[in-house]
Amino acid sequence: xxxxxxxxxxxxxxxxxxxxxxxxxxxxxxxxxxxxxxxxxxxxxxxxxxxxxxxxxxxxxxxxxxxxxxxxxxxxxxxxxxxxxxxxxxxxxxxxxxxxxxxxx
Length: 105
Prior knowledge:
This protein is 49% helix and 16% strand. It is elongated. The chain has a domain at 39-105. Helix 2 crosses helix 4 (72-85). By secondary structure, it is an alpha+beta fold. The N and C termini lie far apart (61 Å). It has helices at 9-19, 23-39, 62-70, 72-85, and strands at 45-51, 54-59, 101-104.
C-alpha cells in the first residue's frame, strides 16, 4: 500500500465545502458581512438579497438610504476590496461572485 500525500486542514475543509455544495451560501454570507462592514448601516438594514452580481438592500431609514445612494460606487469598490482580502470567499464559483451593482430600497 503506497502512502498518499498529506493534506492540510485548509485543503480538506475547502474540498468538503465544495463537495457539499456550500460555496454559494457561504459566499452570500460573506457578501452580507462585507456590506455591514463597508456601509456601517447594519442597524438600518432590514433585508438583503444577492443574485447575479446585484446586491439588493432594504433600509429602514430614507435618510440613510439617500446618503448611501450617493456613495454606491465607492461602497461596491470597498465591498469587493473586503471580499478580495477574505480567505473564506471562494473566487472560483461562478454562481456567487463579486458585487457588480448595489440597489438600495
